[in-house]
Design goal:
Length: 131
């Protein structure tokens, strides 16, 4: 049974940093790409980052490129999202998700309706950026 559990969200001031963690079980990083998407209040979901299976190549949406870094610890079955220079518009619920195969452009795009381009995802963790 595949499970993904996010942690590390919270309240942070603009310009601050947070590190989210996604603890996974029931899957192998050799076969699953792991990504993060978010949903801000009143907005559609947005894919923001992905780390590929096997070689760990990373990719980012323009909205977070240069500020966020995705990484993974294979021994701990955990994927991280380091978020720096946070802005109020980063306020959202952040979800980690798993998709068998490679990272694709669809993983870094707005998500229309319930058409989430992943096989599995967690319950989410709230990130609030406010002074």
């Amino acid at each position: 049974q595949v499970q993904l559990v996010e942690s590390g969200g919270g309240l942070v001031q603009p310009g601050g940093s947070l590190r989210l963690a996604c603890a996974t079980s029931g899957l192998s990083f050799d076969y699953y790409a792991i990504g993060w998407f978010r949903q801000a209040p009143g907005k559609e979901r947005e894919g923001i980052s992905c780390i590929a299976s096997f070689d760990g190549e990373t990719s980012y949406a323009d909205s977070v490129k240069g500020r966020f870094t995705i990484s993974r610890d294979v021994a701990k079955n955990t994927v991280y999202l380091q978020m720096n220079s946070l802005k109020p518009e980063d306020t959202a619920i952040y979800y980690c998700a798993a998709d068998r195969g490679r990272c694709l452009p669809v993983h870094l795009a707005p998500i229309v309706g319930d058409d989430i381009p992943y096989d599995y995802w967690g319950q989410g963790t709230q990130v609030t950026v406010s002074s």
